[in-house]
Specification:
Elements (H helix, E strand, L loop, with lengths): L1 H15 L4 H6 L5 H13 L1 H27 L5 H20 L3 H24 L4
Amino acid sequence: MAQARGDQIEHLAFPAGQLGEPGLRRGWPGRPAVTGKLITSMGAIPAVGVASWLFPIGHILGLILLGIALWRGRAVPAWAALMSACSQILHFVFAVIVPDHALDGLSWGLTAVGFAVAAVAYVRSPQG
């Protein structure tokens, strides 16, 4: 077990020492084998592996719930709240199921529009 942990640390330390300009001169970004070892080693660390799954789940579900809360609280028009909530469903589809960077970018544009409407609504409110 101690050997496996040592290997993980070695894989993490090796690419980290090549970052920056010295790494660019050695061609580190273009070495998929080294990048693969780094990602595999990091994923093998339990805390990193768990966080790597919790973060995307949390940010997608969190924004869906925020859109629902904006709608139920009537803080923004229904279309803006739905735009915020549905954008994350579209983000998941276009980032994971059918990878398409342009459509994923458009889904984040929906999030931005929904949040802009929420920002204007907050500034116009008595608390803003």
